[in-house]
Design a protein that fits this description.
220 residues
């Protein structure tokens, strides 16, 4: 069992009581997925507001936005769990979840890009733009691979890692805004740089993985 599977099982044990409670009161996976999107939109709105507010409070708002992103990430885990435990899995549900996940991530990263750009960190916004490209391509390669009947979940920077890095970076930037040793905005930008590099790298790793699988399927 790799670290992702182990961590997933640990989180499932923690959230299972909440999952069973949701099933009991009739909350469906699609409602949970939609709630996650609404929370991410709220986080993006906070980032946008932080972009135009006073510098002394900008990172405070960014930290709260990071907390919203992290909270929304729990809903991303719970919708699939509710669907499986409650016997509510469906093809449309899988499509709906995948599409809203993309919207959730992109709207959050757009909020960060806007925040950095309007706070005068042009290079930071460019890095965030590259992280948006990488995040899109990781998901796109997997979707195309699965359309060809290939299993493609390899690579380091998958959605859970991207969400956690983005959220923790924003939270820590807000928490350390009064530190005078360095610019706390770097704490927000650094995770985006990591995502920009590793997400795009993961996309190409997945392309290579699919190429290998397709070669193995060819008749000798």
């Amino acid at each position: 069992m790799n670290y992702r599977d182990w961590l997933q099982q640990l989180i499932y044990r923690i959230i299972n009581p909440v999952v069973h409670g949701m099933i009991k009161v009739g909350i469906t996976p699609n409602i949970i997925t939609t709630t996650g999107l609404v929370l991410n939109i709220a986080a993006a709105v906070v980032f946008v507001y932080a972009a135009v507010t006073d510098w002394n409070t900008a990172l405070t708002y960014a930290g709260w936005a990071g907390g919203l992103v992290l909270f929304a990430g729990l809903f991303d885990m719970m919708d699939g769990r509710v669907a499986r435990v409650g016997g509510m899995t469906s093809t449309f549900g899988a499509l709906y979840d995948s599409v809203l996940d993309r919207y959730s991530e992109l709207v959050t990263l757009f909020g960060i890009l806007y925040f950095l750009l309007f706070q005068g960190y042009l290079w930071g916004s460019v890095i965030t733009g590259l992280s948006i490209i990488g995040s899109l391509m990781v998901s796109y390669v997997r979707a195309r691979a699965e359309g060809l009947g290939l299993d493609c979940k390899v690579g380091l920077m998958q959605r859970p890692e991207r969400v956690v890095l983005t959220a923790v970076g924003a939270i820590c930037a807000g928490a350390f805004q009064r530190v005078g040793l360095f610019d706390p905005m770097y704490i927000l930008i650094a995770p985006q740089a990591i995502i920009a590099v590793l997400a795009n790298w993961t996309a190409f790793v997945r392309i290579g993985h699919c190429h290998k699988l397709l070669k193995q399927q060819q008749p000798q």
